[in-house]
Write a structure and sequence with these properties.
Length: 313
């Protein structure tokens, strides 16, 4: 039933997304989680505190945020009817927590101006999905940034929430989104968050351990050269600074025959990252569209796998 509910969630979000009118009125479940994290972080992560105190307060922030997401989901799940109706309602409630359409749209908004030679437009669009300085990015840099975001967020935004939704139902997908939002907001290696966000970052690493690798293998499986893509992924994934993001990104690089990652400029620093699929050419706008096609095929294979799982159950 959980696998079937996740198919419904992917289909509903893929077809409708989260309407802008609804977002303007009530926000989005992830923004609700983010508001709680921001409030706790501002109150408890004071620079005058010692490192151990900040770590403890960060751990309490994680516990409270995850509980705030999971407990209502548990209560709602207990009230849902059984059978097909309960499955459908679970899928509808889970849909906002799956980013099938929103991820595709955000990357497509980069691809269109990049293909038209509109670098300012592509830079504005890419600034919505990556943290690096878009003013420093040329055509290849913009395509790399968008493809890396597509690969990583296919795992964080679709595969991982669906995975935990299958394992633990509505509480699983809600809990995962809380963990992932915590990591994106406080799990940073900077002076402010290094200690306060340590538990959040470690928990996110654990939560994405299986989904990141599954995403990578999905990309490889739907590529035109799966054996080559798997070889690149297995060789280069561990070179990435993240224990998880390297798997879908290296798989994307191998599947498309381009190089990704490499040195990148942020507002206050330059990060010297190793290349994934070094020696391959830089991507361009055409490769970005190929990456979107690869993503859609991979999500189709994920849905097919869920259907088989639901049928077998």
């Amino acid at each position: 039933m959980s696998a079937a509910a996740m198919i419904i969630a992917m289909a509903v979000e893929g077809a409708f997304g989260w309407p802008n009118t609804l977002y303007r009125r009530i926000g989005h479940p992830v923004t609700w989680i983010g508001a709680l994290i921001d409030r706790l972080e501002r109150r408890w992560n004071r620079p005058d505190l010692d490192d151990d105190t900040r770590r403890r307060r960060g751990a309490v922030t994680v516990a409270l945020t995850v509980a705030a997401a999971v407990l209502p989901a548990l209560a709602i799940s207990a009230l849902l009817p059984g059978g097909v109706l309960g499955m459908v309602l679970t899928g509808l409630l889970a849909a906002p927590l799956v980013a099938t359409r929103s991820l595709r749209d955000h990357v497509a908004w980069v691809a269109a101006p990049l293909a038209a030679g509109d670098l300012p437009g592509a830079r504005r669009a890419v600034s919505m999905i990556v943290g690096r300085d878009p003013a420093q990015l040329d055509d290849a840099g913009l395509a790399r940034a968008a493809l890396e975001s597509l690969a990583e967020n296919a795992s964080d935004g679709v595969v991982a929430p669906v995975f935990w939704g299958v394992v633990f139902g509505l509480p699983g997908i809600a809990g995962y989104k809380a963990i992932n939002t915590l990591d994106s907001m406080i799990g940073h290696r900077n002076d402010r968050h290094l200690h306060f966000g340590r538990v959040a970052a470690r928990l996110d690493d654990v939560a994405n351990l299986i989904p990141a690798r599954l995403t990578g293998f999905l990309f490889c499986a739907v590529s035109g050269r799966p054996l080559h893509a798997v070889a690149v992924m297995r060789r280069d994934a561990r070179a990435h600074r993240s224990p998880n993001a390297g798997w879908p990104e290296a798989a994307m690089a191998g599947a498309l025959g381009v190089r990704l990652s490499g040195p990148r400029s942020y507002c206050d620093r330059v990060s010297e990252e190793p290349w994934l699929n070094a020696g391959a050419p830089d991507p361009d706008a055409r490769d970005l569209n190929r990456g979107l096609s690869l993503y859609l095929r991979a999500m189709g294979m994920l849905a097919a796998g869920l259907a088989l799982l639901a049928f077998a159950a």
